[in-house]
Amino acid sequence: MITLLGKVLVCANLIFSMVLATLAFGVYTQRISWAGKTAPDQAKSELDQRREQIRQNWEALLAADTRRQTALAEVVQAERQRPADQQWYAAVIRQLQHLPPDKPVQVAVQQEGQMVPDPQNFGRPTLKNGEDRFKKPLLSWDAYAQRIKEVSDQIAVQQERWAKLAEESTAWTQRLTGPKGLWQRYADEDDKRRRVQAEMDDFVLPQLLNVQVESETLLQRRDELQKRLEELRRAASRPTGP
After folding, report:
1. Counting C-beta atoms within 10 Å of the first and last residue's C-beta, which end of the chain has fewer, N or C?
2. What CA–CA distance (Å, rounded) separates 62 from 178?
3. What is the mean pLDDT of the chain?
């Protein structure tokens, strides 16, 4: 019994020793070196790594603060210039909307899709006289609205005139093609002319020929009578014997 208990204790001691050896090896290989380097071939300690990280972050903080100071100065300058820029852009918008028709509007100069700044005007866009696609001066909104109104009024006048002309054309067409229109009257008159011509051909012309023949006969008879009358006068004028 004692021998068995001794064997169990020896095995347990061996197992416990192996566990402790494993823990000791893990602690040795995975330990964190908080102190500085003790040898050149050793890795940086945790303290050195933290110092290097703090140095890098500090340098980044200084660079960011420098940029912040520069941007802050630019923001302050832009805030000071903003009211003047607002007035300038408002004036540009007003002239785009309300400039008289005899003056072209000003538009921004662009190169490759970007506005060209004017160094003499605090970097604002450079302006030039605007032109439309037909190379004519570009006018303001009010000028084009006035032109559109004038053209619309002219179109309305012409439409009213065309409506009256269409009504007159319809009336004349009705007079021309209606039941008592000119075409019907022309057809009626043509029918009358044909019937008159047919009546003349059937009745008047034969009567006219008869009258003409009778007239010629009467004329011949008159001539004969005149000759006979002359003969009788000459016979009467001759002296008679004792």
Report:
1. C
2. 101
3. 83
pLDDT tens digit string along 77-119? Answer: 888 888 998 999 999 999 989 989 888 998 899 888 888 998 8
Q: What are the helix (H) ranges across 111-202?
A: 141-177, 182-199
- Dump pLDDT digits (tens) for 139-174: 999 999 999 999 999 999 999 999 999 998 888 887
CA separation for the pair 242, 240 (Å, rounded): 7
Distance CA 28, CA 55 (A): 29
- Token pair listed for 129: 């006289």
Amino acid, single-letter form, for residue 226:
Q
Give the angle 131-137-138 at the CA atoms, nearest 5°. Answer: 65
